[in-house]
Structures are given as structure tokens and as C-alpha cells.
Amino acid sequence: MTTSTTHALDQAIRLQMTAANQFSGHCDETYLNMVGPFGGMTAATLLNAALQHPARLGDPVSLTVNFAGPVALGDFEVEATPLRTNRSTQHWLLLLRQDGEVMTSATAFFANRRETWSEQVAACPQAPAVDELPRMERHERAWFKHYDMRYISGVFQPGGEESNDSLLWVRDEPPRPLDFAALTAIGDIFAPRIFSRRQAFTPAGTVSMTHYFHATQDDLQRAGSDFLLGQAGASRYHHNYADQIAHLWASDGTLLLTSTQVAYFKE
After folding, report:
1. Fewer CB near the terminus (10 Å): N or C of the chain?
2. What value, to the nearest 5°, has the Cα angle with vertex 163 and ends 200 and 206?
3. Alpha carbon distance 110, 89 (integer Å)
4. Distance CA 69, CA 75 (A)
């Protein structure tokens, strides 16, 4: 379950169950982005419906979110339907509607994880200590102030060095104990890759995003409210779409999340 506090993230993803598989929520300006709210917060809201559903089994293993249209300020409804539940796995359909129209859709896969042989293949990048890096101070979007971001490389700043990749330390601001909802949101904090590649503002936005959760409840507890190390890169920009592959590591080097997404961009 998500942490119950007065933190801005908890307020933003708050849902009230109104009927079987039905929840109501409200979107305000707290996490506002270019068009509608920050996509990571929308994704966390949809996941939260499954997390707090009375029929929930296990923890999230994957979440795919399709951003069909911008969520407007005001009330919305979320339909969270467990499509199939087996002994240790569960599949979900999640729909966010406003005025009867689907604005965001998602599917999620939950499971009771079992103790097995384990190996982390991806190596955590080398990075300077958080205290050696300045906090990025940007105020163009409302959601920026809710994250403490310390860039090591690949920051978007007009006139800066062009790069496909970004590396940074990040955590909620103010600090908040990590859970699956917060991890979901942080997985989308990277600017569209074309921003860093061209070092120029380009109309762009995520169309579809998939998170793969490696983290267990024990991993989240160990991470606490510490910074996570985030890395993002791209494979190809082509015919007004580009991909992104991102990873989030705990400060001890444990891989918590792998994310892929596709974003549109315009000239």
C-alpha cells in the first residue's frame, strides 16, 4: 500500500472507492506539466487503484501506461478491474476517465514473489556523492519542485552539451519513504531524450510507458527516503517518435526499476 501521509504525492494520487472496481480522484495544479499533470503522477495514480483494491494479490511486477489524452484539472474516475487472478499472479485493467472519456489506460501484472536464485546483471553506474552536486533549480513546471534532482550528466539546458544519456540522483521533495507508487512516479522524471540530444525545447510527450519492478518490499524499505540513481538513454529518433530506456538504482547499487517508453516529438 502507499504511505499514508500529507505528502504532496499522497494527496495527488489519493483515491476514494465509490463502487465495485470504481474510484474517484481529483487533479489539481500541484504536479502540473506542459499539458496536463506530470505523467509519472498519473501512472502512480492508476497503480494506486490496484494497490488499494480489496482484491489485490501480491505486489506489482509490471505496469504499462498509455497516455491517450491529457488529464484536465478537476475530478476523474478510475476503473480498476482484476481481469484474472491465479494462485500467485494477477492481471489488471486500469482506466482513467473524465466526462466519460478514457484519458489514460493501463495494464498491470501483480504477483507473490518467491525466493529463488538471483543475479543482478546490470551494473550500477559510478557517480559522485549526492552532497557533491548542486540541486537543479528549475521553475518552468509545477512538478519540478516536488523532486530533488542532482544531475551528473545529460541535463537539459539550452546551449549545453548534446547527449542521448542522462545520469542523476533524485528523490521526492520533501523526502518520502519509497513505495511502489513513488517508484512509479520517479521512473518518469527524465526529460524526453530529444531535449538532451538537441539541447533545445521541442514539443514532445510520452505516449506509452512500461515499468518493470525489480524491487521487493524489503528493497523499498532499505531504500527508505534516500536518493535513487537514475540513468536514461535512447536508441533511435525517427519519424517523430523516439524511445527511452531508463533504470533506477538504490544508493547501495540495487536495481529497483527498469523502464521503457516511446515519446512523440515535433520539429
Report:
1. C
2. 65
3. 6
4. 15
Residue 169 confidence (pLDDT) above 50: yes
Quick: pLDDT tens for 61-99: 999 999 999 999 999 999 999 999 999 999 999 999 999
- For the chain, the three-class secondary structure string (H helix, E strand, C coil) is CCCCCCCHHHHHCCCEEEECCEEEEEECCCCECCCCECHHHHHHHHHHHHHCCCCCCCEEEEEEEEECCCCCCEEEEEEEEEEEECCCEEEEEEEEEECCEEEEEEEEEEECCCCCCCCCCCCCCCCCCHHHCCCCCCCCCHHHHHEEEEEEECCCCCCCCCCCCEEEEEEECCCCCCCHHHHHHHCCCCCCHHHHHHCCCCCEEEEEEEEEECCCHHHHHHHCCCCEEEEEECCCEECCEEEEEEEEECCCCCEEEEEEEEEEECC
Q: Give the residue from 189, 150, 166 showing the smallest Cα distance to 9.
A: 189
CB 74 within 8 A of CB 103: no
Residues with Cβ within 8 Å of residue 12, at least 6 apart in sequence = 27, 28, 30, 31, 37, 41, 44, 45
- pLDDT for 214 equals 98
Beta pairing, strands 89-98 & 74-85: antiparallel
Q: How many residues does the chain have?
A: 267
| Contact predicate 81/107, CB 8 Å | no
Q: Identity (one letter) of the amino acid at 157?
A: Q
User: What is the rounded CA–CA span in Å between residue 255 and residue 253?
Assistant: 6
Each residue's pLDDT tens digit, 93-104: 999 999 999 999
In this prediction, residue 202 has a pLDDT band, given cuts at 50, 70 and 90, of: confident
- Cell 542532482 locates to 150
The domain made up of 8-113+134-265 has a fold known as Porin (2.40.160)
